[in-house]
Amino acid sequence: MKKGLAVLFLAFFAASCQADDALPAWNADTEKAWWDQNPTPDLWPPAMTQIQNELAASYKENGTNAFSNPDFQGWLEHLEWIRIGILTPDILSDPDNLKAFIALGKDEPVSHLYVEKLSPLDTKQSLTNLLRLEQAVPDDLHEYAALGIAYCLVFDQPFPENWPHPQVPHEAVPIGDLDIVERFNFYVQANRDKKTELDLTTLPFENLRFLVDSEVKLSELEYAQKNRISYSHFEDAFSSIKYDDTRVGKGNFSYNWQQPTYTLADIEKTGGICVDQAYYATIIGKGRGIPTLYFTGQGTDGGHAWFGYLSNSGKWVLDCGRYENQNFAKGYALDPQTWRVIDDTELDNFFKNGANNPNFQPAQNALAWARLNARDPSARKILDDARTIMPELAETWRMEGTYLERTNASDDDKKTFYQSWISQFGSFPDMKVRGQHLLLDVLKKTNDPGADDLQQEIIVTNRNTNFDVGIREAAGLIMDKVTAGDWDGARLEFESTIRDFSDQGGGTLYYEVVQPYIEVCLKNGQADQADRGIKFVEGRMQINSQSIISDEFGKLKGRVADSKRAAASGQ
User: Fold this and answer.
1) Which pLDDT score is estimated for 469?
2) Tens of pLDDT, residues 79-134
């Protein structure tokens, strides 16, 4: 169940191209005719070969224009849907599932949306989910296609074990009612009863995946619907929960929730710290039909949590409760479709340059075509075409980079590609740094003298607004010195990093540099160097005495003192 469907696609046959194949129009009549001619799975493989030949001929004749052709898109998505059926015989061996699969194949708004949004990391469980919805509520699924697909692709693999966050015992969280048909029906009925702030039939999948991504009992979502915080000022949901000073005051840092249950009512009654405030706001939003995001990040005084939501203007607000004075370089959330970490700048770039961009769908068509031809020599050209269509779409660069690595492209080819990557994302720091790191790997592999200069450039150019990247790069240099046994070099790099970032690094500087460096010194018997490091930090890094960092720094300082005493006594 864990193997991605997109990976299975690549293992299937590679159809040959016949230039004289013409691509027929894609419409309701041709769709019906195809199913009439191919009603059973045994007829699908040769029919699929014909479709792929026709698509290949169209691409050869029209180039990138093919990806903007609605006929090309219609047949491409039909081809992908049929491939899924052929590659999941274990699922379609059930007659009811086969019947539902064919019915969905004839329901373009649902099946085509599914293949459009399917990720290489999604599993076969997503198809099982979709077939269950089709069998249970076919009319509602057709009307609420994007909502249904969101449930299928979010609930195809388990939620993280520490959901919703690691500072509450799992058994305290009111998790339940996890059947996706029941959850889907809940939102459909809530929408029809006008209990949602937004009309869920109008929201795209890209937003709805941040609505359905909770495991709380439906009674919690019903409770949330009674909340009357104004949608036009929904950021107030965060501060509506009183901050519990008793959990963080006077050195009493109780990070974890202390009550036996963690309901919305409990949080309202007891209050909480930032993680509870952010969780409360996200669940209140989801209950009221507002897509929401839960963020964490490192600031001046240590870790913090806040939230984001889709406003009634249609724009995402990603900094509710973030606190500008804490100087957060990054906020991190989870992509509920894959449960991978994503940062706020990546999300902001996607929301601005994603599905609303007119070039987005043609670029997605190109990427889908590239996946279907991944083992063909034409794959590189298709990926180049995808970049040409929408160069600001990060996914196109990632896919082509993966292709270059998988096919063992020449080092010069990789250098040229990654230099173009860096140029394209000059105003998008995270993608730029990712390209710089990939280029750095090639430069180091080839002993290129530019490697050291590039590594220093990453640190220097990310010293201010994107300082967390600079800090992590500096941390890597420090540990490289430690690994080489160059303790003097490690100390110099450490002190240089503290000087460069002490006025803004906060939690990132402490957890990425200070704590690891001091601990590795202690582990290797370098108590004097650890002590020198502690004193250097004390003289330069501003640490709020009432912060979590102060508490942890005090404990670290005590360990260094103990180590020095032990060394002095010969223990």
Assistant:
1) 75
2) 999 999 999 999 999 999 999 999 999 999 999 999 999 998 999 999 999 999 99
Q: Which residues touch 192 (CB under 8 Å, ≥6 apart)? A: none
* Token pair of 67 as six digits: 């990806």
The CA-atom distances, in angstroms, between 282 and each of 129, 176, 242, 265, 352 are 25, 17, 16, 14, 22
Alpha-helical runs (H) found in 87-233: 89-92, 95-105, 108-117, 125-136, 138-143, 145-154, 180-192, 205-208, 218-224
Distance CA 526, CA 531 (A): 9
User: Which residue(s) pair with 341 in the sheet?
Assistant: 334
pTM for this predicted structure: 0.83
DSSP-derived letter for residue 304 is E
**121, 169 in Cβ contact below 8 A?**
no
How far is 41 from 34, CA to CA, in rounded Å?
13
The number of beta carbons lying within 10 Å of the beta carbon of residue 324 is 8
Q: What is the pLDDT of residue 353?
A: 64
Q: Which residue has the tokens 């795209």?
A: 204
Looking at the chain, how many residues does it have? 571
**Nearest residue to 487 via CA among 456, 526, 461, 460:** 526
Neighbouring CB atoms inside 10 A of 392's CB total 20
Beta bridge pairs of residue 317:
309
Question: pLDDT tens across 475-507, in order?
Answer: 888 998 899 899 999 999 899 888 888 877 688
pLDDT digits (tens, 9 = 90+) for 218-230: 999 999 999 999 9
Same CATH fold, 469-571 and 170-178+215-353? Answer: no
Could you tell me which CATH number the domain at 170-178+215-353 has?
A: 3.10.620
Which pLDDT band holds residue 19 (cuts at 50, 70, 90)?
very low
CB 174 within 8 A of CB 216: yes
CATH classification code of 469-571: 1.25.40
Q: What is the rounded average pLDDT for all residues in the chain?
A: 89
The domain ranges of the chain are 5-154, 170-178+215-353, 469-571
